[in-house]
Inverse folding.
């Protein structure tokens, strides 16, 4: 079916590889993840391999994947897996949720795609499908319950992958392709004539537009970390590096938050990757 995506991690059931993929895919396009996932895993093939490296090395390899804090979370998770679990990912929801940076979606994705457990995955795509399918705006508990209840016995991997693909390629936010949907006849919203309001709007898990990036603190943070991948940055150069040459106080404040996050440290008269 043309709405089914062919992505490199579909061929693996390796829990670590799937965890890496899911952390990468948080707020990063799958096209970019598809390019970077293989080389990144070759560099850090196991939790132990990552845990033995300094966090700065992981951040360097994370270049171009956005939100460097996620690289730190992944390094911390690898360390916990290595030190507390013998290098093997937990295979239960509680154990996965206890890992740094792992939330409900990521934990269930590992359970479904690595261990093939019968749990439903809720992201912006699956939540939109479920809301339209049921014809209801769903709260957090309701959307997770609906996702879990619909998983056919013994088909957790295929079902969840199909739901993700369906939401990403057919049941889209602005222009849903209902004529191409394999379940349109069972969709409450479609059967009712797609009335306003769309039940997906306001359903838990369905994303809304992000804040403007240009000129934001996020942009400045990213610019400084990108420069630090190439070498230390002197205190006198930080504001210009972050794009705010006329606002050194803002640069100092945002750089301080990077230090608090563990991404950056002071060295000599400037900054370096942690």
């Amino acid at each position: 079916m043309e709405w089914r995506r062919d992505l490199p991690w579909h061929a693996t059931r390796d829990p670590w590889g799937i965890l890496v993929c899911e952390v990468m895919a948080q707020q990063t396009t799958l096209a970019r993840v598809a390019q970077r996932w293989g080389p990144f895993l070759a560099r850090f093939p196991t939790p132990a391999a990552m845990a033995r490296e300094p966090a700065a090395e992981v951040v360097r390899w994370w270049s171009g994947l956005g939100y460097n804090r996620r690289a730190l979370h992944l390094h911390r998770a690898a360390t916990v897996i290595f030190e507390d679990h013998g290098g093997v990912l937990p295979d239960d929801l509680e154990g996965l949720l206890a890992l740094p940076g792992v939330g409900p979606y990521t934990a269930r994705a590992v359970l479904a795609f690595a261990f093939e457990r019968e749990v439903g995955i809720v992201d912006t795509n699956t939540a939109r499908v479920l809301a339209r399918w049921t014809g209801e705006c769903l709260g957090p508990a309701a959307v997770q319950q609906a996702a879990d209840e619909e998983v056919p016995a013994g088909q957790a991997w295929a079902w969840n992958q199909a739901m993700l693909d369906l939401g990403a390629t057919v049941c889209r936010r602005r222009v849903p392709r209902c004529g191409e949907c394999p379940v349109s006849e069972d969709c409450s919203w479609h059967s009712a004539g797609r009335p306003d309001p769309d039940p997906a709007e306001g359903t838990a898990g369905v994303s809304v537009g992000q804040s403007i990036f240009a000129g934001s603190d996020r942009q400045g943070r990213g610019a400084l970390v990108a420069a630090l991948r190439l070498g230390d940055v002197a205190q006198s150069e930080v504001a210009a590096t972050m794009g705010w040459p006329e606002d050194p106080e803002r640069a100092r404040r945002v750089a301080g938050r990077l230090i608090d996050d563990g991404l950056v440290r002071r060295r000599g008269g400037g900054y370096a990757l942690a």
